[in-house]
Amino acid sequence: MRSRLLSHLIAPVALFAFAFSPFAQAVVQNRIASAANDGVRTPVSGTVVSRAQRATDLGTAPADKKLESMSLRFSMTPAQQADLTLLLANQLNPSSASYHQWLTPEQFGARFGLSSADVAKVSAWLTSQGFTITRTARSSTFISFSGTVAQAQQAFGTSIHNLSLNGEAHFSNVADPVLPSAIAGVVTSIVGLNDFKAKPHSLARNVPSIDPSQPHYTQTVSGVTSHYISPADFYTIYDENPLLTASTPINGTGVTIAVMGNTDINSGNVLPDANVAQFRTAAGLPAINLKLQSAIPAGGSDAGVSASDVDEAHLDVEWSSAAAPGATILYVYSSNNIFADSLTYAIDNKVAPIITISYGLCESGWGTAMLASYNSLLAQANAQGQTVVSSSGDAGATDCDVTGLATEGLNVDFPSSSPYVTSAGGTMFSGDVNDSAQYWNSNNASDGGSAISYIPEQPWNETSGSGGLTAGGAGGGGVSAFFSKPGWQTGLGVPNDSSRDLPDISLNAAALHDGYLVCSSGDGQGETPCVNGFLSSNGQPNVFGGTSFVAPSFAGILALVEQQLGSAATGGLGNIGPTLYGFLNGPTYSTVFHDTIAGSNTVTCTQGTPDCPNGGAIGYFATTGYDLAMGLGSFDVNKLVTGWSGVKPVGTGAGSGIGTSISTTALTTSASLCAVSAGTLALSVAVTGTASGPTPTGSVQFFVDNAAVAGDTVTLSGGTASYSLVTSSLSSGGHNISAVYSGDSNYAGSKGTLLGPNNNANFYPNGPIASVDIVSSTSSGKPDFSFAPATCGASTSVQPGATAAGVTFTITPVNGFTGSVSLTASNNDGMVATPSFSVSPVSITTSAGVTTSFVVVASAPTTTAKSIRPGLRPSGRGPAGRMPWYAAGSGATLAGLCLLMLPRRRRWGALLAAVITISALTAVGCGSNTSTTGGGSGTTPPAGTTNASQGIYTFTVTAISGTLVHSAQISYVVP
């Protein structure tokens, strides 16, 4: 209450001071000219999230259900967007008068927010609809409010339904909302119409019990030695000790780090927190200066301790403070939505110069409206001098996948992919037990440390060829599909892909080799807080991994940088990208950063799925300089901190800025994507921006399999362009075609994958078919075959329990091909189904084509049925003594992994990888997540049988003969 009252008292004073400051610009103009209730409505597009599209619909949500965290997020005018882009570049340019001249939230609002008159009009309209205003942004960029489902449906002309996804209950709007046109013109998104949350990027590891009286973190059990990382180990490995032990310690004193949370830190939020206190004592550190700040909207309810979030809260607080033992840690928490509440509060109130957030979701899971809103929020943070550090994800280069073999293609995590965020990726130590003595002492010091020196690293990757993500995690990294490359992201190894690449830096994130110690046993739900140092009450260490550790640890290191710089860092560092890549382009990179050229963040994928036409693994490899597996690499903390002031920032001159508004690039063709044998493929590109903004300008670069096609750049005219892609030189099989928009002063760049005429998002909720299947041309003379259904991208309906009409595939020989063709299929969305082929394998002995029919029965034996769909981030929860989702080593078989899965307080899904070989589908997975809920008027399943649930499902059907591979996708709609 006090903080809200103070903010209201301070705001008028700050605004008065701003009017006479050098930041003053022309007062923003009113934009809402007509009456708010003029009867004309305009949709706010991009607000139905993909997880809602994939979920099972359970009908309309209760009318009286309260929605506490709704908000209208306001857009900027083109002039404001251009002004902000220029300001952000100048604030990072040492030659500019605006260098490090950070804004207050009120100054930001007076320049880039909505006018006070317009804010009043929007507020009045919301009140007229029965909503209660809970917060008006200091920056005039949003209004938060609460109300019921009935009020939201009436006001926004949408329908809010109860849903089920992966066994979890949710609610969401199932259609884009509408607003009075006068208001819609100033709104980017409506937040809070669903309860799908981003998930923490942390992973628990099971470890054996040891004697509580002798806590060993270099530990040998049954002849096997394991190592767990304590703060003292971190200081040794990354050379932080010279700073901490200096005559005037550089330990973060005087700097505040804001940690974003989505739960109370303990029951009642009592300080000091017992777990944090035990962690500090075990690590030999003084008591922490920990403060709490609620971001729950006025009148909102505090849900207390969230079992799926409290481990994340403890590890973020403990390890941000471990990296900066003298810093103040401000834990900003909420209950409903860490982005809508915690992150928004931290930025709009400028609570600290450094913000760390270990939550995220793959870019495509957000929806363009949410991406646009939160990206603008992050730009505001930078303009205010706030540095935001975010974890890059734990699913390697396939961030939309959860477990098993990758099926969703190459994807990256947001907010880590925002150009206004420093992306924190993962490494793992490359030494093994044979060289343990070289890097580890056999005994532990009183502070739990046993590391001897820096240990060589490679990209974190504990996945396996057979189990994929079921076996382990990997450091997130790759190419953004929405954001163009900022001017500062340049240097040795940085791809020429016109896109924001991530991560930026990396530190150890492995759980197995080697995990971090955390104290998080007590969650307010009957468990005893951490005791005996790092041990839980049963004598087991709490050991975790994941890029969740990298973000808070790097945030702590930035606190050391700020303390070291002193007055030069007054108010914060803002976006540190120019300095980080200044190291890469300067003479000290090789002495500060640990450049690694071995390892990858690749994940084994299902053949025929996006980016995986021929099977194998997809991802990126470590190379000299920057790479998409671990960014610039890990670093020597002492040399990074002491060398920071001597680095020349890069990419801060004129023309280096990027637009702040989201654009969308659509790449289409009127031609079939199946069995393409023509020499060219006609493509059409359309780039769109916000409804109230100008038409995007600039150019579009074309890519084949993520490699730029030399010289294939076209200039937009009216936001569109046409292009003829030469395909005669492409090899036989599947290829991914994409177009990358460069961006302009108003819009950030964006990427679109090829979407054929029969392939639309209604039939393919997991994304468009991004693969064009090339057949060797007649002129090449190479034997090949075409493989296609009668209609490329065919779709059909099937009732639960019924048999769908067979889809006929024809295999036609080309250039004298003969031989046997085997058939497989991937059940991309985990449909409960029993599929088969009428003929498999198919034998080609003449020049005539041969057909086979693919048949799907929308039911399966209950013992094997899985109604599972990919896309939900693992919760990251699990205590010592419970097996996490990848506790076995990479060499373990999938069957062994299934037997070892014993997670606590986790909800597991998406463990199914279904593959049809010869004439049957083999389901690969473990655990149980069976659904017996059918849809439509399907048959009642016989005993021991489960029917398919309502939804839209895709299958990738693949034909293989030797090295020749051709695929096509079909979909089934279960009503």
UniProtKB/TrEMBL annotation:
Family matches, as PANTHER family: PROTEASE S8 TRIPEPTIDYL PEPTIDASE I CLN2 (PTHR14218), TRIPEPTIDYL-PEPTIDASE 1 (PTHR14218:SF15)
SMART domains (UniProt xref): Pro-kuma_activ
SUPFAM superfamilies to which the protein is assigned, alphabetical: Protease propeptides/inhibitors, Subtilisin-like
Organism encoding this protein: Tunturiibacter empetritectus
Molecular-function GO terms, alphabetical: metal ion binding; serine-type endopeptidase activity; tripeptidyl-peptidase activity
Keywords of the record: Calcium, Hydrolase, Membrane, Metal-binding, Protease, Serine protease, Signal, Transmembrane, Transmembrane helix, Zymogen
Pfam family, one: Pro-kuma_activ
Gene Ontology BP terms: proteolysis
Record protein name field: Subtilase family serine protease
Ranges annotated as spanning the membrane: 883-902, 909-931, 951-974
Coiled-coil region: none
Signal peptide: 1-26
Domain called Peptidase S53: residue spans: 228-647
Cofactor: Ca(2+)
